[in-house]
Amino acid sequence: MSATALICLGASAGPRAENLLEAGAQLLAEPGTALAAVSGLYGDRHYLHTGDATLNLVLALDWRDPPQPQALERRFKRIEAGFGRQRDPRRRMPVPLDIDLLGALDADGPQWQSRYDPGRGYLFHGLSQLPLAPLQAALDALQRQRGFRGEDNAHGFYPYAGAGFVRRYLLERAAQLRDAGQREAG
User: Fold this and answer.
1) How many other CB atoms are there within 10 angstroms of residue 184's CB atom?
2) Tens of pLDDT along 13-41?
3) Residue 21: HSE in the Cβ half-sphere, 13 Å Cα cutoff
């Protein structure tokens, strides 16, 4: 059995782009994981807070033997801690890394986690960059249902690095991490 996880990574402190790319590569280096689709890195002009602007990255990762959502979220917390994230019950910003499991995707479309609204600007912007037919059909339906146009949403974001670059980087870095892990184990 396989599953596609829809994941959003964000960073608003420290080396934001580097944190997002390295964390994405760590996720992709997990055994049985493949990259289905990736957004570009993009900045968010909507949410102002102390610190730097937020950069985001959205991944669709295929898992050959998918972990349970709770196990995956625990893994996310360990990765975040490795980048210096300290959990704050008040969820204050800025943070060096935040990783969220938005939901899962199959041929019938996405199944969203209840706490994430794919219509939120920063999520919609990243998700709309993933060329996955069932996801795009669901996003089109969401636009019709809520009466908004995705292209009108895009003005609040700026491109930081294109999806082609991000894809190449993640694939190369994940291969390096897998090789290093095999050398350590062997």
Assistant:
1) 7
2) 889 999 999 999 999 999 999 999 999 99
3) 21
Whole-number Å distance between alpha carbons of 128 and 143: 11
b vs e for 67-83, b when ≥16 Cβ sit within 10 Å of the residue's Cβ? eeeeebeebbeebbeeb
| Pairwise CA distance, residues 98 & 88, whole Å | 12
Give pLDDT tens digits for 149-158. Answer: 877 776 678 8
Query: Alpha carbon of 57 to those of 15, 100, 108, 124, 138: distances in Å?
Result: 14, 11, 24, 12, 20
Question: Cα–Cα distance between 167 and 186 in angstroms, integer?
Answer: 28
Assigned token pair, 168: 């190449």
Q: Per this entry, what is the length of the chain?
A: 186
Query: What three-state secondary structure class fits 135?
Result: helix
